């Protein structure tokens, strides 16, 4: 289980994704990348990035914001390319041709992970490569102009889930990537959020220290796509966590651990939905039931997660 | 009424007027606006638009919908065509009518996401394993995006084959004046899909002569329909009989090549006494028109052949046009692709390739200078 970093230690660790990149104001992607890389401590890292906002905005000609070795891959296979890098590293190590203690990380957005990249992610997890996969999840294809993805919440407006008399935004619930990753029985899967840096870094640290595949799914605000106030970016993620829409939890060798339980301070999903323009149409009388539908879904998933967390450690011997 | 719309909008309008009722696509610049518009425009006319989880899913859904009786279209850019490749072969093998819009951007790979090029011409031509003829139409402006989309649907249905619309960023995302009535009048009449009679003994790939294209019967319709991507006979049973395989192989080729002239869309503007011919397609045709105008205004002589049907090759008109001159100039926004087709058809002629792959357009002045037109 991840233990939180002290603020002093946090400050000591430098930035390996430097300033000067051109992500939008309030974007969560750079917060994810910066803090995850802090979790690698002093190890040299190979960064793989699927096509997406993070990739486009951090490597604009003729600059780069990455302090580590960096591979931009196709949209669909960052996990595969990083698999190849890691496998080659193991071979070189065995041959005695490399001795640096490299770590490997793949970054993808939700489009590049939930949708087009899930096959290569699944393959890499099943093969058991020693790498960390990080999905920064802002719930749509923001880079190509706000199209829906498998991570888009029910009822959200995107350019391909338009709102109008017939359709009130996205008709389906989102899929649960964290659970899909956990179903691969990899050693470490965790869900984190941009609002809690220390939690995120600690989880990244565990992920990098884990032998074998580790997956981090991180809630990442996109003020442009969510149609919300830039200054509220971090607060938005905090509220979504507080509503249990985005629980902070880990799956360590199959054991579910909830890191944050708001208990009586759990807020309704409507509290943050009201602050995001992508849901504004749902607050008209004729669509209110969808807010409730999302609330019911979140409550159900939260109860299910708590039930999973109450199960005994699958690795422990039963008497 | 004159509207101010982009090429991608005109593709959507043309598709809907051609009877397209199914669209599946995946976000990619500069083709995304077709996906977004289809999401908005298709449901009100009873159609369906779906965003796939990737390009393979998108084209796969289109093939399924087309075989179930709907006219189907998908749209992407170069990296998406790479992922479409296997399913384009599948559409050829299963004789599935399908329109694929490729709003090209500079490659390879992610390339220049919002900058245009014509780099995929031979890629689209040879997109499938096995190497079979493709039908590829290339619009040069917004009106072409409308009329050629209608034509693409007609060819797809008439020849039961996937058809590429080789658009590109400059054409797809540039807004210009569009006269809908005029475009409608210029466009071919949309053809209904030829459907097999309900009481016939249905053979999905009946071709008594190799160039014959038989009507389809939708999956779920009056006949039991078989569809296979493996080598099959006219009944869609797998076969290893060399004679049957040869017949079917000829069929996929000759149903396109023997009807090349029926698909001929081009503008030939010869000038008496001209010694040079410019052959152009797509957005370069507009620069070529500019160059021709400037040369003629200054008293020079030059002929122009603008090809909207780039495949199947319009051999008759190209041969005729080339025979009149000693020099042929072929401007392309790639490193020289279609020019090799022209060279093969213009032995002994001085064939000059003008190429640019810097994400900027080839200007009329560049054509004049490099082509030695003045």
Core attributes:
heterodimer, A: 319 residues, Rossmann fold, globular, B: 374 residues, 7-stranded mixed beta sheet, 5-stranded mixed beta sheet, 14 strands, 37% helix
Précis, in short:
The complex is a heterodimer of chains A (319) and B (374). By secondary structure, chain A is of the alpha/beta class.
Can you describe what's shown?
The complex is a heterodimer of chains A (319) and B (374). Chain A is of the alpha/beta class and 319 residues long. Helix content of chain A is 36%, strand content 13%. Chain A has one domain: Thiamin diphosphate (ThDP)-binding fold, Pyr/PP domains (Rossmann fold, 3-Layer(aba) Sandwich), CATH 3.40.50. Chain A contains 12 helices and 8 strands. An 8-stranded mixed sheet of chain A has the order 2-1-3-4-6-5-7-8, with helices on both faces. In chain A, strand 1, helix 3 and strand 2 (69-72) form a beta-alpha-beta unit. In chain A, helix 4 (78-94) runs parallel beside helix 6. The model of chain A has no long low-confidence stretch (mean pLDDT 95). In chain B, 52% of the residues are buried. Chain B has a 7-stranded mixed sheet with strand order 3-2-4-5-7-6-12, sandwiched between helices. Chain B folds into 2 domains: 2-186, Rossmann fold (3-Layer(aba) Sandwich); 265-371, Rossmann fold. In chain B, helix 1 (7-17) crosses helix 2 (32-41) and helix 3 (55-67) packs parallel to helix 4 (78-93). Chain B is α/β, with parallel strands linked by helices and 374 residues long. At the A-B interface, helix 5 of A face helix 2 of B.
């Amino acid at each position: 289980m991840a233990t939180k970093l002290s603020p002093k230690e946090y400050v000591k660790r430098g930035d390996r994704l430097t300033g000067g990149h051109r992500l939008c104001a309030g974007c969560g992607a750079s917060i994810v990348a910066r803090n995850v890389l802090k979790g690698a401590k002093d190890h040299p890292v190979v960064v793989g990035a699927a096509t997406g906002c993070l990739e486009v905005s951090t490597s604009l000609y003729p600059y780069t914001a990455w302090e580590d070795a960096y591979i931009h891959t196709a949209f669909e296979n960052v996990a595969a390319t990083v698999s190849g890098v890691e496998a080659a590293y193991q071979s070189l190590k065995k041959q005695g041709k490399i001795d640096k203690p490299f770590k490997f990380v793949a970054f993808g957005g939700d489009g590049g992970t939930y949708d087009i990249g899930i096959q290569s992610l699944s393959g890499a997890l099943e093969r058991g490569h020693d790498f960390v996969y990080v999905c920064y999840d802002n719930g749509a294809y923001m880079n190509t102009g706000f199209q829906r993805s498998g991570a888009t919440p029910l009822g959200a407006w995107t350019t391909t889930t338009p709102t109008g008399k017939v359709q009130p935004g996205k008709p389906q619930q989102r899929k649960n990537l964290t659970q899909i990753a956990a179903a691969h029985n990899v050693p470490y899967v965790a869900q984190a959020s941009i609002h809690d840096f220390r939690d995120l870094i600690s989880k990244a640290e565990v992920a990098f220290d884990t032998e074998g595949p580790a997956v981090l799914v991180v809630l990442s605000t996109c003020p442009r796509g969510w149609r919300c106030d830039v200054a509220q970016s971090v607060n938005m993620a905090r509220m979504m966590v507080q509503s249990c829409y985005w629980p902070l939890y880990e799956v360590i060798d199959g054991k579910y651990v909830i890191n944050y339980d708001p208990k009586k301070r759990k807020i309704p999903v409507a509290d943050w939905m009201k602050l995001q323009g992508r849901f504004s149409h749902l607050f008209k009388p004729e669509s209110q039931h969808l807010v409730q539908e999302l609330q019911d879904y979140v409550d159900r998933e939260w109860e299910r997660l708590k039930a999973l967390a109450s199960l005994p450690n699958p690795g422990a011997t039963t008497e | 009424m004159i509207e101010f719309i982009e090429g991608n909008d005109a593709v959507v309008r043309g598709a809907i007027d051609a009877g397209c009722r199914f669209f599946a696509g995946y976000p990619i610049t500069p083709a995304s606006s077709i996906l977004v518009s289809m999401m908005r425009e298709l449901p009100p006319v009873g159609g369906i638009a779906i965003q796939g989880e990737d390009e393979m899913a998108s084209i796969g859904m289109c093939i399924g919908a087309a075989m179930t009786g709907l006219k189907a279209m998908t749209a992407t850019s170069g990296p998406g065509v790479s992922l479409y490749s296997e399913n384009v072969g599948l559409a050829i093998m299963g004789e599935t009518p399908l329109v694929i819009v490729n709003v090209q951007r500079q490659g390879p790979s992610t390339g220049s996401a919002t900058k245009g090029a014509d780099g995929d011409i031979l890629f689209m031509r040879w997109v499938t394993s096995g190497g079979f003829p493709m039908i590829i139409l290339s619009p040069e402006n917004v009106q072409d995006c409308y009329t050629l989309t209608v034509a693409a649907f007609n060819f797809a249905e008439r020849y039961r084959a996937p058809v590429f619309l080789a658009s590109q960023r400059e054409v797809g995302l540039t807004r210009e004046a569009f006269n809908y009535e005029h475009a409608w009048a210029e466009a071919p009449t949309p053809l209904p899909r030829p459907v097999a009679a309900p009481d016939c003994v249905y053979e999905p790939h009946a071709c008594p002569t190799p160039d014959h294209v038989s009507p389809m019967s939708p999956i779920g319709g009056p006949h039991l329909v078989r569809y296979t991507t493996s080598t099959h006979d006219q009944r869609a049973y797998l076969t290893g009989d060399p004679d049957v395989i040869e017949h079917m192989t000829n069929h996929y080729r000759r149903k396109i090549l023997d009807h090349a002239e029926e698909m001929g869309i081009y503008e030939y503007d010869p000038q008496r006494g001209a010694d040079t011919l410019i052959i152009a397609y797509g957005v370069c045709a507009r620069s070529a028109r500019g160059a021709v105008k400037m040369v003629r205004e200054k008293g020079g002589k030059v002929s122009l052949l603008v090809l909207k049907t780039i495949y199947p090759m319009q051999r008759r008109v190209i041969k005729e046009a080339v025979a009149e001159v000693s020099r042929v100039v072929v401007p392309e926004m790639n490193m020289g692709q279609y020019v090799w087709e022209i060279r093969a058809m213009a032995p002994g002629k001085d064939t000059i390739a003008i190429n640019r792959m810097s994400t900027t357009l080839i200007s009329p002045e560049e054509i004049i200078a490099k082509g030695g037109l003045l």
